[in-house]
Amino acid sequence: MNQQLVRSTSLAGAIVLGLGSILGTGAFVSVGIGADIAGGAVLWAILIAAVTALCNGLSSAQLASAHSVSGGTYEYGYRFLTPAYGVTAGSLFVVAKSASAATAALAVGWYVTNATAIPEYLAQWIAAAVLVLFTLLVLGGVKRTNWVNAAIVTVSIAALLTFIFTAHQQTAVVVERASVKWWHVLQAAALLFVAYTGYGRIATMGEEVQNPRRVIPLAVVLTLAAVTLLYLGVGSALLHFPGIADFQAEHFSLASLLPNGPIQWLVTAGAVVAMGGVILNLILGVSRVVLAMGRRADLPMRFANLNDQQTSAPPATWLTCIVMLVLVAIGDIKTAWSFSAFTVLVYYGITNLAALKVAKSDRFVPKWVSILGLVSCLGLAVFVPWQVLLSGLVFIVVVLLIHQLRR
């Protein structure tokens, strides 16, 4: 007999879980990267990214309702499209989320070195140590409980609101780039989209929430609305710092804009806690997809092996850690985040395409939502830096060639 989870999660609980999965590197790093690209127009970029994320979140909820299995679009690609789409989606997920984790780890390194006397050149080593530490914690069975998640959300929001309030005590300055064009806004939107992608956690809660067909879409909308307000608050706050026009996006942290003192330490602590939680979630999520790909033989089957207690998957988890460490070796937050942006946009393009194949009897999200999501994802993907775009396309071609040869 199949066992099902008790439907004990309310709308408020789903929103808190969603916030815990989203808030992190996006709020504390990527809004600053967006401001570096688009200047004051970063607020428009945030809104474009939010609309794209909303469409994708609803498509993900539709798919999770129609085909409730772990593995996300890797499984949806197999179920609703073709194996090639599934393999591509799985590979993109592993790389995209690994790049996000690498960005979060690098950001932790920069936040720590900015707030202490530790030399900046050690930021990469701190990032690598953080990834290895969290990998060991995952192998030891550590997970984010609902209480831990709520605590992380509380600390994150408190730090962000403190930053926003402090910034607005200063006079706003004009933060414009002389050469900002409409495509800069779209490039910023592409990078900011990654800052929303934790909404997938809500979409997978079909067995856990009360009245899922109503609660999940509503939770997606309300969570993304709350996150967008926070991002707009951070974006507008950045306009109050005269030095924002000269910061290095590769090494950016909100705390570095604040004077030394308790407020800077609070923002630093909030950022480190939030991004630590994100790293833990990403190692768990990526390793589970690697495990699923090993079971289907899309990766060597050794990656489907579990430990003796069947509580963790050491080969899949260590492969996840190694991929993340390779990306950390780049040492550039903006490059890692840009690669995550391209790969995750294509990944969610496949998600929307799969959502269009859901049977009419199972559909509760209009098709136009998935069409808009598909067009938005693929449209924004071409605005990442050309080096990243080229690397991403080569990666997809290689994945498809290997898949074809293995068949």
TrEMBL record:
Q: What would be one Pfam family of this protein? A: AA_permease_2
What keyword terms does UniProt attach to this protein? Answer: Cell membrane, Membrane, Transmembrane, Transmembrane helix
Q: Membrane-spanning residues where?
A: 12-35, 41-64, 85-110, 122-140, 147-165, 185-203, 215-243, 263-291, 312-330, 336-356, 368-401
- Identify the main location: membrane
The cross-references to Gene3D superfamilies, in alphabetical order and at most eight, read: Amino acid/polyamine transporter I (1.20.1740.10)
* Cell location: Cell membrane
InterPro entries for the chain:
AA/rel_permease1, APC_superfamily
User: Which molecular function term from Gene Ontology is one that the record holds?
Assistant: transmembrane transporter activity
Q: What top-level branch of life does the organism fall under?
A: Bacteria
Membrane topology reported for the UniProt record? Multi-pass membrane protein
- GO annotations of cellular component type: plasma membrane
Under the heading PANTHER family, the entry gives: AMINO ACID TRANSPORTER-RELATED (PTHR42770), MEMBRANE PROTEIN (PTHR42770:SF7)
Protein name, as recorded: APC family permease
